Amino acid sequence: MGKVPHTMRKLLLLIALLVAGVSAAAAGEPTQALLNELVQPHLAGAGKVSEGLPQVQAGALQGEGSALFTLEELKDGTQALADLALPDDEPAADVPLALNDKVNYFITFFQTKGRGTYARWLSRSTRYLPMMKEILRKEGLPQELVYVAMIESGFQLHARSWANAVGPWQFMSATGRRYSLRIDQWVDERKDPVKATMAAAMYLKDLYGMFNNDWYLAAAGYNAGENKIFRAIDKYDTSDFWELSKGSYLKRETKEYVPKLLAAAIIAKDPARYGFTEIASVPVVEYDTVTVKGRTDLELVARLAGTTYQSIKELNPALRHWCTPPNYPDYELKIPKGTKARFEQGLAAIPAEQHFSEKNLYSRYTATRKDSLKQLARRFGSTAGELAELNGLGVKDRIAGRTLIIPVKQSVNFAQEGRRETAKAEAAAAQYYTVRKGDTLHSLSRRFKVSVKVLAAWNNLKHAVALKPGKRLVVAKTEKSVSTKG
Fold first, then answer.
1. Which of 341, 333, 340 is nearest to 309 (CA)?
2. Which residues are the signal sequence here (predicted)?
């Protein structure tokens, strides 16, 4: 029998896939059901921080590609099945890019119903691929593993899954900390593309060793957790991923994770072959780094670097608030390329105490058994939601024994209030005072050597308010401690 032409081979393969899908549907179980979250996780706070990239609305991500389909349904009315590209042979790669019905299914999907999403992934990837591939190369890992980030998040730094996996590599908090990512109320390094990629490289290398140098099992372990894959191997007495995926123990998400990853990598190696010929390229991130003190105001950083607050936030996606972390003595900050000399010269000309904005003054408080966030919020003039966010807690979490960061000054402008008085108050040991009969804000301001306006702001009071005996007031504070003695 003569050699079958290339186009005919593709058509026969697609017909075979269609027949297989129809047969399985008749049996009540589709051959390759799509993931419930085939495209991407939803974006927490979508629209708040732009990466300067093509954006996908969170609502669209939830529904796009979530329905089951047959290959026949993939046709858009103008494109024949025979026109869709499929690989002739396994592409050359360090990770074996297997070709089978499951992989071809996703190759077909990305050219049809998932085309728009995959095009956005490719466009966004151009910003991060050089950096990510270089890190993988230095770690001795295959370049194809960069497409784990494509499948996990579509290269979106602020992506968050339903399970609270975060960042371009979708680390759970426990796994992120295991690989030296700092995650607290001030920073979340899962969103830092460089640090998260380094952590992902270490994790993937460990998984590869755990599963006897099998990248398919390593990828499945990245998705489901290594223990889940080990249990599947024990249950079915095989370490062949494709055999494991035939059983019912692994979730559908994990069964489809590897073929989807392989399909994404195959297309990315030769986008034009698969019809992706006009992909908008996004400039690679370039920046200078500077070291600043903890709780440095990002508005000040932006002004000295000649840029915007939003730009500083985009360059430093790990920062969760408006300043560098107060619990870090020094913090390495990214600023626009070419602005380092200007920034350092400007910063040196400003007194150190002016580096910190009024919003950045906090105290620490160790909660007792009787405390709750709601009670502390009333006591310190805050809200339970704000305290929960600042301390990485849920509003209803138990806090006994925890040392919490408490905002005790929220709206005082240093320039207007006199920096000398404020500096004295900051240097003092944090104190609370129980109001006695005859006390006024003026008498207490003289007694504790702090202005009436600062004292009122610390305690969320109006200047002319009459003080009720028994009320506890903040009369001095520092970032190191809070005394509960009156």
1. 333
2. 1-26
Residues 330 and 368 in one domain: no
CATH of the domain at 184: 1.10.530.10
Counted domains in the chain = 4
- 285, 193 contact by CB (below 8 A): yes
In a domain, residue 87? The reply is: yes
Max CA distance (Å), the chain: 108
**In terms of Cα–Cα distance, which of 14, 16, 20 is closest to 82?**
14
The secondary structure of 28-96 as a DSSP string is: TS-SSPPPTT-S-PPBTTTTTS--SS----HHHHHHTT-S---HHHH--SSS-GGGS---SSPPP-SS-
Q: What is the domain range of residue 386?
A: 361-407
Does residue 233 sit in the same domain as residue 291? no
Whether residue 111 is found in the same domain as residue 255: yes
Q: Do 178 and 303 fall within a single domain?
A: no
Which residue, 217, 251, 252, 255, is CA-closest to 233? 217
pLDDT tens track of the chain, all 486 residues?
A: 454 454 555 554 554 444 444 333 333 333 333 333 333 333 333 333 333 333 333 322 323 333 333 334 444 444 445 466 666 555 555 677 888 999 999 999 999 999 999 999 999 999 999 999 999 999 999 999 999 999 999 999 999 999 899 999 999 999 999 999 999 878 999 999 999 999 999 999 999 999 999 999 999 999 999 999 999 999 999 999 999 999 999 999 999 999 999 999 999 999 999 999 989 999 999 999 999 998 899 999 999 999 999 999 999 999 988 889 877 789 999 999 999 999 999 999 988 777 775 554 566 788 898 889 998 888 877 788 878 877 878 888 889 988 888 875 443 333 333 333 334 434 333 467 778 877 888 788 777 777 777 777 777 776 667 887 778 787 765 433 333 333
How do the residues of the chain divide into helix, strand and coil, expressed in percent and rounded to 5?
45, 10, 45
Rounded Cα–Cα distance for residues 263 and 107 (Å): 5
Residues 181 and 314 in one domain: no
Residue with tokens 């050699």: 3
Q: Considering the domain boundaries, does residue 159 fall inside one? A: yes
**Residues 107 and 198 placed together within one structural domain of the fold:** yes
